[in-house]
Amino acid sequence: MRFATPRVITALMLREMTTTYGRKPGGYIWSILEPVAGIALMSWIFTAAGARHPGLGTNFPIFYATGLLPLFAYLHLNSRVMLALSYSRQLLAYPRVTVTDALAARFLVGLITELLVAYIVLAGILMLMDTGTHLILHHVVLGFAMAAALAAGTGVLNCFLNHVFPVWGSVWGLFMRPMIFVSGALILLDALPQEWQRWLVWNPLVHIIAEVRKGFYHGYTPAYVSPAFVFGIALVCGVVGLLLVWRTHRDLLEN
């Protein structure tokens, strides 16, 4: 079967879309409402607190959208990949369904969803408001590619850890909660004290969000942004995670 793997992945993707979002387009509405609600809430909070301008530019919604959307994309994609084996446990009993198929299907459905959500939200803000921004598309594409790669890498490694240590999912969730405050999504890294910056620059999410914002704010060129750093972490986590999952997936599925 020359095209067995693409067919299996496609079938798994269709199953994922049906079970996650239902058979009606309305199932996708919740994926759009979450970031929209977050952007609206943060804009209202900072405006009510008397803030006249966001960290960059003059428009609050576009500032928070360029921070929250790549952050949410990473968090959601990582979670999907991390739970791939649990989600497809019964299907993995079939010889033609491999671990890689299950991981790829979950990742691709999540990626398509997050990109659509980001496009709809960002395009809506740009069309409805005078944001004063200048779109440089290749920075936006690179930023979301960094988020997707990091989510795939850490997601695969977390997939293994989640089965070896049953409490890992909860531990990882607690670890991720402060990320909205220490990733640059709400407050620019440049606005924080110098001693904080020296530590937070090691957070790959800081690089991702800054890269996306470079695509909207002309002249915003933070020197610390390193796509190679993010892709390197993604590659190491992904390779190690895949090796561990491949070596132990039968034992993991039987437990």
UniProtKB/TrEMBL annotation:
Cross-referenced PROSITE patterns, in alphabetical order?
Answer: ABC_TM2
The reply on keyword Ligase is: no
TM ranges are 28-50, 62-83, 103-128, 140-165, 171-189, 223-246
Q: Report the principal subcellular site.
A: membrane
Q: What is the lineage of its organism?
A: Bacteria, Pseudomonadati, Pseudomonadota, Alphaproteobacteria, Rhodobacterales
Please give the PANTHER family that the UniProt record associates with this protein. Answer: CAPSULE POLYSACCHARIDE EXPORT INNER-MEMBRANE PROTEIN CTRC (PTHR30413:SF10), INNER MEMBRANE TRANSPORT PERMEASE (PTHR30413)
Protein's recorded name: Transport permease protein
Family per similarity comment: Belongs to the ABC-2 integral membrane protein family.
Membrane topology per record? Multi-pass membrane protein
Tell me a Gene Ontology molecular-function term this record carries: ABC-type transporter activity
Please, which domain of life does this record's source organism belong to? Answer: Bacteria
